[in-house]
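Example record used in the benchmark description.
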Amino acid sequence: MESPTSTAAGRKGITGKLGAAVALLGILSFINYMDRGNLSIAAPLLKGELGISATQLGVLLSAFFWTYACLQPVSGWLVDRVNVNWVLAGGFFLWSLATAGTGFVHVFSELLVLRLIVGIGESVAYPSYSKIIALHFAEEHRGLANAVIAAGLVLGPGFGILAGGMLTARFGWRPFFIGLGLLSLLWLIPWLKWMPKPQEAAQMDTSGAPNLSEFLRLRSAWGTCVGLFCGNYVNYFLITWLPFYLVRGRNFSLAEMAKIGGIAYLLGACFTAFSGWLSDRWIQSGATPTLVRKTFTGGGIALAGIFLGMSAMGGPVFSAAVIILGVIFHGVCSSNIWAITQTLAGPRAAGRWTGFQNFFGNLSGIVAPALTGFVLDRTGHFYWAFAILTAVALTGAISWFFVVGPVEQAVWHKKLQTESAIL
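Model output (structure tokens):
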């Protein structure tokens, strides 16, 4: 039994104030991925100036995920119980200040603490995105809404490689962090004006939401977790190793690497948005959410893995072309992942489901870079690293197609018991 709030909100599309809110969430996702990847851009300069070892640098690069991944369930619980608009604003304020503060550090320990704080702040982002979309958008509008956010995910790393590298080279890493953190805070001004009405989010009844044990008994819950882990494995492989592979493995110059990466991520963002729009149109024409969402997620990650795996087989030009295709199809997959989660969980549990799924999925941020480096050290080339990536991507496709059940809201036992008592 839906609440009046969720029913009314469910009839809305991406127009007016809600359209502005979705655009702001897409911009926030862009900032989100810029901030989580900015340390790798500054790493060469930062390492020398602070006199830190390669091991310490590795710790810093992974520290974000310690707090980000571990706090996902907590953040998911929080956005289901506190006004999600303010939770998101508070987390953003915290991580932006930590980003700006990075420009003032002079020792390893200070930098480590700030990276942990960035992870704490960003941990509220995806549970908040899902909660807002589940509250205010119907099934046939969630593809595009999620695709706008996913486009920011794709554009953030690409823009970071291009603009971040140039700004750091011109002004140094300290002004880059200070300027990025402080300028990002301007996002709060339009958010406070156009965020969805607070009273709508506050009225959502969460008394019938599932507990953790009930969630863990759902096959679809584990299917979405495995699917996200595999998709994120591909994403974090690209973010951390693609520049190195193009320069060292394929002998492209730094300028050529930047162009290839920029083109790949720009096209990926375009196809992400287009895929979200197309999936909504397909559902509006009468197709089931199960068919539509699984086609984009499972098919997208499978093709991304296949094309990226092929990059280790041909010459440099062929390799660049299939990498671009791989990034594009990863964007196709990303456009519909959270639409599946939001439908399965429903407005009552969207925050908690997203939090646990994102916790599990972001463990790949620890695994993918480390495993790739280990394989590269043992073999001396990228062939097996790409083979593993392809296997992981195909595993993700299997999970989306066959482990995740029908894409329809789960029936929570607590909810049924409450309704039975009323009757």
